[in-house]
Each structure stands twice: as structure tokens, then as C-alpha cells.
Recover the amino acids of this structure.
């Protein structure tokens, strides 16, 4: 009787095990890379939807309550001029009960700086609004205001066209058009 007790593994077993490990690693690695790309795209799309909603809500709320579009205004030492890239609203101040305070106004500016859109507010001391500059949207490729009059201060409507950058080079930028339905003035 022969005593064939094998101790260890053969070269073929080692090669097969290594090959299985390599194939499994490649599959797992490619799944990780594709899921990471999908996550990044979905996060960008979600962020842009939030930015669009934030910009639209603020632009409509301020624009529809504004008494006029003014040619220029200075807030905290920064001069703003209404143009195709900036809009300056004059809006009646509101008390804590949302009643208009007569002969008292707040000034609100929407503008683009770099790839971000901001709102800068100068509120009257009696107003419930607060004086603040805040970020409304990022990843903005373009912001343009269109007025129904060649003189924006005489315009009764204003339309904001905002283009968001698209991280996918094969697709065009995402565009949001916000038109004020209520007349200004």
C-alpha cells in the first residue's frame, strides 16, 4: 500500500484560483467605477433641480411683489446697474404681518458672479425682510434678463433665462426660463 498524502496545492490549483480572483476583481472594479460616475451625474442633476427651484421661487416672489425695476442701486458699497445680466427691484417693505409699509422700500438685486447666482437685499429698518447677500445657484453657465421695453426701468415684465452647466460633455446645458406673470409697477 502506498501512502499518498498530498501536502500543499498544485501549480494548476494556484493558477485557477488566481485567475478567478483577477476576473472577480475586474468585475467589481468596473461596477464601482460605473456606479461612481452614475452617482456623480445624479448628484449634479439633483443639485441643479434644487438651484432651479431656489432661483425661480426667489425671482418670482421678489419680482411679482416689486413696485418697479430701478436703473441702479448701491448695497453695502457695491453699485448694481440693471442690465441684461443684473436686475434691481424696488419692492415695498413689509411689516411682520405682511402688510405694506407706506413709502418704505427694500431693494433686491439678482446677478451672476463667476458660475454662481446671488441675491443681494437691502431692507429698510422697518421691514420684516433682512439685509443679506446669499447664494441662489451654482454651476450656472449664463444668466440673462429680458425686458418688454428697451428701457428696463419702464418694463412691466421681466424674464430670467438661466443656463446651468452640464457635466456631460455630450449634452447641452440645462436651461430654466422664469417669466414674471404679474406686471411690475
Amino acid at each position: 500500500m502506498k501512502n499518498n498524502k498530498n501536502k500543499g496545492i498544485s501549480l494548476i490549483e494556484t493558477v485557477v484560483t488566481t485567475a478567478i480572483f483577477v476576473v472577480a476583481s475586474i468585475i467589481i472594479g468596473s461596477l464601482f467605477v460605473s456606479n461612481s460616475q452614475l452617482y456623480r451625474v445624479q448628484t449634479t442633476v439633483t443639485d441643479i433641480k434644487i438651484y432651479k427651484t431656489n432661483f425661480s421661487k426667489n425671482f418670482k416672489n421678489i419680482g411679482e411683489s416689486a413696485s418697479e425695476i430701478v436703473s441702479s442701486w448701491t448695497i453695502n458699497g457695491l453699485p448694481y446697474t440693471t442690465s441684461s445680466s443684473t436686475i434691481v427691484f424696488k419692492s415695498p417693505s413689509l411689516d411682520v404681518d405682511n402688510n405694506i409699509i407706506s413709502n418704505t422700500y427694500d431693494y433686491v438685486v439678482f446677478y451672476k458672479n463667476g458660475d454662481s447666482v446671488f441675491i443681494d437685499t437691502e431692507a429698510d429698518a422697518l421691514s420684516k425682510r433682512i439685509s443679506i447677500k446669499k447664494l441662489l445657484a451654482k454651476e450656472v453657465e449664463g444668466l440673462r434678463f429680458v425686458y418688454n421695453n428697451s428701457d428696463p426701468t419702464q418694463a412691466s415684465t421681466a424674464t430670467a433665462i438661466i443656463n446651468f452647466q452640464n457635466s456631460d460633455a455630450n449634452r447641452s446645458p440645462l436651461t430654466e426660463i422664469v417669466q414674471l406673470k404679474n406686471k411690475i409697477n
